[in-house]
Amino acid sequence: MNPWPYPLWIAHRGAGKLAPENTLAAFRVGAEHGYRAFECDVKLSADGVPFLLHDATLERTTSGLGTAGVQSWSELSRLDAGGWHSPGFGGEPIPTLQAIARYCVRNQHALNIEIKPTPGDAQRTGRVVALEAAHLWAGQAVAPLLSSFDPEALEAARLAAPDLPRALLLDTLRDGWFEQAQALGCVAVVTNHALMDAALIGRLHGAGLRALVYTVNEVAEAQRLIGLGVDGMITDAVDRFAPGGIG
Predict the structure, then answer these.
(1) What is the CATH number of the domain that holds 191?
(2) Domain tally for the chain?
(3) Which entry of 12, 33, 85, 193 is annotated as an active-site residue?
(4) Whether 135 is catalytic
(5) Which of 3, 15, 184, 217 is the most exposed place for a label (fewest CB within 10 A)?
(6) Active site residue 85
(7) Percent of the chain scored above 70 by pLDDT?
């Protein structure tokens, strides 16, 4: 297999549960705990600006209402994406992918961008996010890893920026997943941690693919996966796991 440039430990949505997910504040908290690799969710505003948000709707993690992807970036940029978590993060804005890229490049942090399309917007989201990522990380030694549960979004990303590495996300080992990962030119497969075992890692490594998992929060499970030779673990427990090993 080709050399793998990403750290083993990856902070989920910036800092797991310690800060408001998918915000620059969360990335800073994750970095304070020693993390140098992060995962985040990216979708598009109505006017095509890539920004960080997990849900299709705004209610859970912002002061906004309704479907995020039908609103302009001007509207989204004025929302509070931190106050829901705790008062100390009140007023924290939704960040653009550009803002996160600047932070990661400046600090030499690795990034896994999960392409998270608004339903019905997979092709546009995959294409625009990939093109933006290729531009923002141009000339950098380590490119971001583009991942998605949505094969249509990954295919659009492949066509738009074929040189960026891609990973297929899986919550089940559905029929045809392996062939799909190969057809999409993926360098990795990221599964629910409970699905990963020695046979699956062997199959992936045998095909030159890396094996990553989400979301590992328990010490015993982390030890099991490390023993199997997993290549990456996304975690919420940034205060429990030291990036250099199990803390």
Answers:
(1) 3.20.20.190
(2) 1
(3) 12
(4) no
(5) 3
(6) no
(7) 99
